[in-house]
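Structure tokens please, single chain.
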Amino acid sequence: MSEPASPDSAAPRSRGRGRRPLDEVRTEILQAAVEVLFDDGMAGFTIEKVAARAGASRSTVYKYWPSRGALALDGYVHTVGTQIAFRDTGDIHADLTSVLVAFARLMRKKPSGPAFAQLIGAAQTDPELAAAFSDHYFGPRRREVLALLDAARERGQIRPDVELTTIVDLLWGSCYMRILLPGVTGTLTDDFARDAVAVALAGAGTQ
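Here you go.
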């Protein structure tokens, strides 16, 4: 899915007459949210800007999102989620490599990479955003990858004594370090992602 590029998107979208279906309203709010996030960053992200761009009221936005951070994250995940989806082909090395390389590429791109780093930073002081990360991003993705690893262990690809959460933390923790630390943000390369998977599975695998 391509990322929105919207030099003229500050203007509200034109609306027809009548009440819009709820699903349509939510989708347009999420689209407006990621546009504001990508255009202005978290520093310039406000509920008012999103509501104006989506042609919705502030009360409608607050009905579904408790804070500007939670809305920004939801818009981000709604837009980029399919690019970093997990797939189970039966080959855990290939599956982990595929998703980690896709994540690395997303993080190197602008505006998606900087926006993600800003969201993580904002979550340190925004409890609603921190909760949204846990409920709608980190939590679900962690469960998905643990399910992949558990299935791989059932197939005999991972040793039964290995703590699966350690593999997850080694892989994604190393990526987050390269996203967030000054001076290494450009080093989250495809090769690094491939090497991280190879090293992690060399210690956890049965071969």
